[in-house]
Amino acid sequence: MDQQECMRRAAEQAVDSYVRSGMVVGLGTGRTASYAVRHLAKLLAAGTLRDVVGVATSVTTQHLMHEVGIPSRELDANTHIDVAIDGADAFDSDFNLIKGGGGALFREKLVELAAEKLVIVVDASKRALGHLLEAFRVPVEVVKFGHSATMQRVVKRLEPLIRSWSERRNADGSLYETDNSNVIMDIEFSATDLDNLEAELRSVHGVVCTGLFLGMASAVVVAHPNGVVEVLT
């Protein structure tokens, strides 16, 4: 079965299994999350679900929600999010995640920290067979002002653990900017304690957010190439 068809089925199953009428739902960013958004819209249009409101994790997702007719609300102090559905770049057996390959890590983490449950939809290749850090580079969002100096401080502080790193750039070579007008460095780390790494990165002045989502996921919905959808809890 085509990989994207597998991912579509897995995203739809996540919506069917975890979203109920009257819920506030955090909606992730990226192709996988877009399948969930479109399926949710179909269920609302058909009357299968009612009174569901979405909280977007990016400008792109906000635009998609508007396009398909999902009511939205902002994240504020009074927002209770019942469940968030999103993709990930890698996950391990403890449901620790690396996210941010699509550049929306800061808003994704804000929304998903506020959610009662976080459901991650991935294909089987995203499962880390060894250490999580060996599966994908860690995106680190940095304030644009003085970003080169901040990146050098990150490298100096964590140099023994860094195998390689780069500034994220667009296809035309220009500096990639997030929805928050920040920039991203992508870092390949050697295996190390994830909690300590997160703390070290966040301690560098100018670092806004990392792509390490530790201990946040409640379930992982895995799409396999043979069409089987596996739900890990």
TrEMBL record:
Keywords: Isomerase. CDD domains: RPI_A. The keyword Ligase does not apply. NCBIfam families: PRK00702.1, rpiA. The keyword Transcription regulation does not apply. Its EC number is 5.3.1.6. It is an enzyme of class 5 (isomerase). It comes from Babesia ovata. GO terms for molecular function: ribose-5-phosphate isomerase activity. Pfam families: Rib_5-P_isom_A (PF06026). InterPro entries: NagB/RpiA_transferase-like (IPR037171), Ribose-5P_isomerase (IPR050262), Ribose5P_isomerase_type_A (IPR004788). Signal peptide: none annotated. This is ribose-5-phosphate isomerase. It catalyses: aldehydo-D-ribose 5-phosphate = D-ribulose 5-phosphate. Coiled coil: none annotated. Pathway: Carbohydrate degradation; pentose phosphate pathway; D-ribose 5-phosphate from D-ribulose 5-phosphate (non-oxidative stage): step 1/1. Belongs to the ribose 5-phosphate isomerase family. GO terms for biological process: pentose-phosphate shunt, non-oxidative branch. It comes from the Eukaryota.
